[in-house]
Amino acid sequence: MDAAHAAMFTRSNVKKLRMPNIGSALQFEMMKMEILKPLLIAASDDNLTNLRFAKLFRTRRGNRRYLRDLMQKVDAQERNHLTQAICNHVIAPGRAPPFERKLKALDAKLTAEDWLRTALRANAIGMKLKITLRRPDDWHLHLRDGNMLRAILPYTSKHFARAIIMPNLVPPVVTSADAAGYRDRILGALPDGSKFEPLMTLYLTEQTDPDDVAAAHASGLIKAVKLYPSGATTNSASGVSHFDSVRPTLERMAEIGLPLCVHGEVTDSDIDIFDREAVFIDRVLDPIRRTTPGLRVVMEHITTSNAVDYARSQDETLGATITTHHLVINRNHILAGGIKPHYYCLPVAKREEHRLALRDAATSGEARFFLGTDSAPHTDANKLLPCGCAGCFTALNTMSILAQAFEEDGALDKLERFTSLNGPAFYDLPANEDTITLTKGDPVTYPSHVETPDGPVTVFDPGFDLNWRVE
Ligand SMILES: [Zn+2]
After folding, report:
1. The CATH number fitting domain 130-470, selected from 3.20.20.140, 3.40.109.10, 3.20.20.70, 3.40.50.1820
2. Among 69, 374, 409, 413, which one carries the catalytic annotation?
3. pLDDT digits (tens, 9 = 90+) for 76-95
4. C-alpha distances in angstroms, 141 versus 153, 154, 156, 230?
5. Cα 66 to ligand 1 centroid, rounded to whole Å
6. Which DSSP helix (H) or strand (E) runs through 82?
7. Which residues have their alpha-adjacent CB atom under 5 A from ion ligand 1?
8. pLDDT digits (tens, 9 = 90+) for 348-394
């Protein structure tokens, strides 16, 4: 009963006992807690001491109904941590669905509050969360040629200002003349008004002429040279088998400050495919670094903690790109529960611990790590074969996926470094002046595939809802 009523009981045989938070129907609550009968017996035996009552009343700690009412009461007062403590207390011994539900909702709410604090720092306006970044660049991109080029280029040029264009066409882009022709075809395929700038590369072969490379660099035509170990990935048959034969070119590149982009996998058939990147670092990359001091090298599309560790062990002449899809999938996505050809790419996704190392690197903000999507369109007809092609097509939804991933890791404030600042700094180019804005709201849907004259190309499916859209 309430204090006003209690004050009316004043006789000497009245003993007042406090039962806070129990509500007004004391007798029913006590019956539910099964303490009314022992309490009455104790009173009639005249041994209802404060201690005896305290012991009886303590049973409320195990009483669901009492605890539920208490939880609702403190929850209504927005005392979130106390509500959490009560829920934890209740669900600890066993199943208690209403408490578990409340706890889950509360967890989400607290996470949302934490997120909100981050977002406010990241320029959230009102309840519409948005972040504005310098326009991103893609430091590793496959645009193909012909029909495919014209069909897929607009998806990259819509969000990205520049991209390092991979030279593995058929035949490959090996000379400055090849690169000039390819650049013109790319510029010709751009949508009207687009300011997208293709950053061209040459495909390093054992016949590459160091003078041609130097001239292409001096004229501003190329921004890097690409090393494919022979047979490492799509159209890499012209790649390098004997590294001594490319040494003069590498030495010239070190002199003139032209970066070498490296597909970092050995191709020896006796090396397990999941080990090829780590072995490449030991057998090829580290020796090149030692014998060609000053050469700027980009370890492309790194997939292992070994590569992350190696990158961190080196000076500022070594950079590393990370793809969108390697931040999202591990090898289970490709192989568990049926084979998923659209998750197959090279280097192949590795164990979860490696994916987590990549996430840590990408979201660290460290200058040596930057985005190279390796977005690589193949038609479904070429993916869904007994020997299907390697590559994930992420040009459409990369920025949505990255915002989602960085938000999940509490690192939205590092997204701009990864997509827009670290790459230009490595390549000694200015960061883009214009910006893009991402807003968070209802789930964004991207098409499952895009049509091209060569056939449909499946868009990478991250396997989770995307709430960030590029405005
Ligand atoms: Zn690639």
Report:
1. 3.20.20.140
2. 374
3. 888 887 888 777 777 765 55
4. 10, 13, 9, 19
5. 61
6. helix 80-91
7. 374
8. 999 999 999 999 999 999 999 999 999 999 999 999 999 999 999 99
